[in-house]
Amino acid sequence: MSVIIVENKDKVIAKLSEIIEETARISIQKRGKFLVGFSGGSLATFLATGLPKIQTDFSKWTIFFCDERVVPVNNPDSTFGLYKKTLIDSGAVPLKDEQFVQIEQGVPADVAARAYENKVREHFPKANTPRFDLLLLGMGPDGHTCSLFPGHSLLEEKSKWFAPITDSPKPPPSRVTMTYPVVNNADVCVFAAAGKEKADMIKRILVDKEDLPATRVRPVSGDLYWIIDNDAGQFLNTQTSV
Ligand SMILES: O=C1O[C@H](COP(=O)(O)O)[C@@H](O)[C@H](O)[C@H]1O
C-alpha cells in the first residue's frame, strides 16, 4: 500500500490524474482497452477537474460503477447522471454515454444488481472474478466505500459480483454495489480524499487499522494507493508539501 500525502485538494486531483493516465496507458498498450470503475461523491468532482487534463485515448475506455444509486439518471443522486453532466454533456472529455456501463432504471435494486452483474460478465466472459484495471474509490465519513457500510451484512458477500442494498444508511437507500471479491481482485485501487472532515476516519483506517469497510480494501495481487491532502492526513505522522 502506498500512502501519498500532498499539500491540498488540487494536488490530490493532480496525483490521482497522473495515476489514472499511467494505468490507462499500460492497459491500452497491453490489451487495447481500459476497464475502470468510478465511484460517486467527492470523487466525481475530482474527476470532473482532473480527467480533461490527462493524455489518453478515451475511445478505449469502458467505465463501470463501483456503486450506483437506483434512481433515474435525471435524479441529482444518480452517479451516472453526475458524470454525464460534468464529463459528457459538457464536452469536457470525448466520452460517450455508451462507454458507461449503466444500471437499469425503474426496477428494484435486486433486479438492477443482477442485470448489472450480467452486463459486467459480458466484459469478463471467462472470469470467475472480474479483474478491473483500476477502481477509483471514495471513503465516506463513516468509513464506507462503494456502498459497503459499517456493520452491514453485505460486507460478507462472497459470491455475487454486484449486490443490491435497500437500507443504505446514507440516502438514497436503494443502491447497487461492487462486492469485496471484485474490489480486491482489481489490478489497482485508488482512494482519493481531501479535507479535515475525513481526517479522523483516515487515522482510524490507516493508523489504528480498525475493521471498517475501507480498511477491507486490500487488493490480493494488485496495488493500493491512498492519495490524501494534509488536512485529511493531519493525524498521520507525516505531512508533506509535494
Ligand atoms: O454514497 C457514496 O459515498 C462514497 C463517499 O463519498 P464522499 O463524497 O464522502 O467522497 C462514494 O465513494 C460512493 O460512491 C457514494 O455512492
From TrEMBL:
GO terms for biological process: carbohydrate metabolic process; pentose-phosphate shunt. Signal peptide: none annotated. Its EC number is 3.1.1.31. It comes from the Eukaryota. Residues 8-226 form the Glucosamine/galactosamine-6-phosphate isomerase domain. InterPro entries: 6-phosphogluconolactonase_DevB, 6PGL, Glc/Gal-6P_isomerase, NagB/RpiA_transferase-like. Belongs to the glucosamine/galactosamine-6-phosphate isomerase family. 6-phosphogluconolactonase subfamily. This is 6-phosphogluconolactonase.
